[in-house]
Amino acid sequence: LAFDLLLLNASLLPMSATPGCATAMRDGALAIANGRIEWVGRTDALTDEQIGSARQVADLRGRCVTPGLIDCHTHLVYAGNRANEFAMRLAGASYLEIAQAGGGIRSTVRATRAASEAELRDSVAPRLENLLAEGVTTIEIKSGYGLDRDTEMRMLRVARSLGGSIPVDVVTSFLGAHTVPEEYAGNPDRYIDFVCRDALPAVAAAGLADAVDGWVDPGGFTAEQIRRLFTVARSHGLRVKLHTGQFGTVGGPPLAAEFEALSCDHLEHLSEDDCVAMAKAGTVAVLLPGAFYYLRETKKPPVDLLRKHRVPIAVSTDSNPGSSPIQSLLLTMNMACVLFGLTPDEALAGATSIAARALGLQDRKGKLASGFDADIAVWDCQQGVELIYALGTRPCLAVIKAGRVVRDRAGLFTSDDAAAPRGSAAAANHNRAS
Ligand SMILES: [Zn+2]
Question: How far is the CA of 431 from the centre of ligand 1 (A)?
Fold first, then answer.
C-alpha cells in the first residue's frame, strides 16, 4: 500500500490517552491514505521503500503535530454585532439587564431575521476563516438567532453549506430554544409548543440538524419546558445538548443526563450531584471561558469536582456576537487554563479528543490514530504547552483536512528542501519527480 502523504520527524501529540501533552511522541511519523490516518509510529520504523513510495513526504524537523482542533460550541452564523452592548456592560449594565431592555439575543434575532442567506454566508466566512487559521478542522454551529421556523432553517442551511465550500467539517445544532422571541414575550410555554410542533419537525425533516440544543438557566427556559423539547428531539432520533448553569442552578444537568445528552455547556453553577449524573450519562462538560471573561463573572466552574467524578471536559469559544465575540480557540484554551485552572494537557484534550466526544465524533475525529480522519494541524513549536502559553503568536503552520494539505504557511509541503527527509535520497527524488 502506498501512502498519499507521510509526515516524518514530528513531535506527535496523538491525544489517544487523556491527558495528551505528556504523551508527545518524539521523532514520530504519520502516514495518510485515502483521507484517513493509516499508521502512526516512529520515523525509524519506516523502511526506505515505504518512504520512497509515498506520493508526498514532509520532514517536520521536530515540529508539533496535533489532531485538527475542534470548536464544539459556536453561534457563528448571525447578522450585525453587539459592540454597543459591550460598552454598556463596561459601564455597569448586566447581561440580563441588557436582555430585558430588548438587547442581548433579541437584538441579534432582529438583525438575523432581516438578513438573506447570502448575507449570512458572506458574514460568517471571515469568522470561520479566523478559526481555521488556527488549525480548527471541525466546528459546531448552532441556530438560535431566528426563533421562527424560516430563519432557524436559513441559519442551519448556511452552516451546512460552509462545509461544502471551505475545508472544514460543520456539525449543526438546532437551538430554537435559545430564548423567547419578542412575539411570544411572557409566553415561554406557547413558544416551546411552537418549537416542538412546528420548527423542530421541519428542521428534522429537512435533515438540517445533527443535534438539538436548549437553554435551562435563570432567564432561560425551565427544565420542564426543555424536557418537552428533548422528548420531541428523541422522537426524531436526534441527540441533545444543553446550555445550562451559566447564571444559576435550575435543574439543567440532571435533565441532560436523563436524555444522555452529548454535552452540558457553561456550568459555572454545578453541584456534585450534577457531576455524578453527567459522569454516569457520559455527558461532556463544555467549558466556555470566553463568556465568563466578557461578562466579568466571578463564579468558576467546579473543575475539581468534574475531575473527581471523571466528567470529560471540553473547551470551546462559544463564538457569538454578545457574550463571547471570540474567533480564537487557542486564546480560549489559554483562558481555560488561566481563568478556570485547567492544565494545558486538559485544555488541549478539551479542544481535540474530548471536543470530538461532545459532538459524538469520538470514533473518527480528535485523535491521531489509525482509522481516524486525517484532519491534522502542524505547529511552529516543539511541545504542546507552547500552543497555550503564548497569545497572538499565529503558531499554526499547516493544516491537513481529510488527507489534503489545505494550508501551508511555511512551505513545509512544497519546497524540495523541506520535503526531503534527512538520509532518504529515494524520498527526495520521488518528491522532486511528482
Ligand atoms: Zn452558547
Answer: 46
User: 318: CA distance to ligand 1 center in Å?
Assistant: 5
CA of 145 to the centre of ligand 1 (A): 11
Place of cell 501551508: 408
**174 alpha carbon – ligand 1 mean position (Å):** 12
pLDDT one digit per residue (tens) for the chain, 434 residues: 789 999 999 999 999 875 555 568 999 999 999 999 999 999 999 999 999 999 999 999 999 999 999 999 999 999 999 998 999 889 999 878 888 777 888 899 999 999 999 999 999 999 999 999 999 999 999 999 999 999 999 999 999 999 988 999 999 999 999 999 999 999 999 999 999 999 999 999 999 999 999 999 998 999 999 999 999 999 999 999 999 999 999 999 999 999 999 999 999 999 999 999 999 999 999 999 999 999 999 999 999 999 999 999 999 999 999 999 999 999 999 999 999 999 999 999 999 999 999 999 999 999 999 999 999 999 999 999 999 999 999 999 999 999 999 999 999 998 554 444 444 434 433 443 33
- CA 344 to ligand 1 center in whole angstroms: 23
Measured in angstroms, how far is the CA atom of residue 73 from the centroid of ligand 1? Answer: 6
User: In angstroms, what is the span from residue 359 Cα to ligand 1's centroid?
Assistant: 14
Span from the CA of 269 to the centroid of ligand 1 (angstroms): 15
Tell how far the Cα of 161 is from the centroid of ligand 1, in angstroms: 21
Global confidence as pTM? 0.94
CA dist list (Å): 380 to 1, 65, 66, 418 = 31, 9, 12, 14
CA of 246 to the centre of ligand 1 (A): 10
Q: 374 CA to middle of ligand 1, Å?
A: 28
Dist. CA 340 → ligand 1 center (Å): 18
Alpha carbon of 312 to ligand 1 centroid (Å): 18
